[in-house]
């Protein structure tokens, strides 16, 4: 099966990818045994794509929008998710498996899984020989440099985020897990992804993060915020999503992408089937449709976000270098970690922000 709708059919049905509240899920195209309840980010699905899926794969999709993988995992943990398919970041898959929130995939019903790039098929997506996650999309956050304010030739390392020479020009996401990851990478700490508190010097981490906040022009919480900070000149150097750098460059904004020497933070999201899903068969058909063309039409073509699948780069002719996928070894990742350690990261980050403001 190959999903190759016409441009006309692709654009029909405006408004179907509606965002609904986290308290419940509103049917978008109907109901029945071929209906898939999906928990994912709203921006992933352009207008008309659900009609394409229904016509080509025989699956009706009900989308409930989530704003983060952490939020989606929280819904699973609280028992407030009745979804068939849940999109989870790589760091969230392992706890979802261990806590029994998602079920193994039937790879016989997902022939497209074979075409997924091996480097995103993480070992921690598998337990007892069974695969629990099908990679949906791949992204990266290189350093974005406003070349009107800073020479990109002078920026080569994540240490710029802690460098007084860039006082007031640094931006970064207000996220404890990511802040600690960058702090450890910039300072050459090992392991990069600790699995226990005794591997972390929290006092040193707090001091480094305090200095980072003091040097920051601003922190942000969304891609739109990060873009606005760059465009307004409030910040000149920050790690941001690659597709934003691409988009701003297309607008002739003076921006350059820098892959830091320590490694570029990468992320990928996975389709998972919830344990106890009402329609697992339809869920698998939905995921297969993603690999058959829906993923390309949803993310690659309109948003320049990679789908790590051979069909995108062999059949569609996309250039791996445009997405950094020609050198997958350049990336660093946030690996799963114990819930208690995440809580300590959050406490340390909050203390660092408070100290900087005081």
Task: Give the termini separation.
Answer: 60 Å
The secondary-structure class comes to: alpha/beta
What percentage of residues falls in helices of 4 or more residues? 25-40%
Total DSSP E strands: 14
Q: In percent terms, what proportion of residues is strand?
A: 15-25%
Walk me through what this model shows.
The protein has helices at 7-11, 49-57, 69-78, 90-98, 176-186, 202-215, 223-232, 242-250, 280-303, 310-315, 339-357, and strands spanning 35-40, 60-65, 85-89, 102-103, 126-127, 130-131, 134-141, 143-146, 170-173, 216-220, 237-239, 255-258, 264-274, 331-333. With 358 residues, the chain is an alpha/beta fold. The strands form 4 sheets. Strands 1, 2, 3, 4, 7, 13 and 14 form a 7-stranded mixed β-sheet that branches. A hairpin with a 2-residue loop joins β5 (126-127) and β6 (130-131). α2 (49-57) packs across α9 (280-303), α5 (176-186) crosses α11 (339-357) and α6 (202-215) packs across α11 (339-357). The termini are far apart. Mean pLDDT is 90; it is low at 1-32.
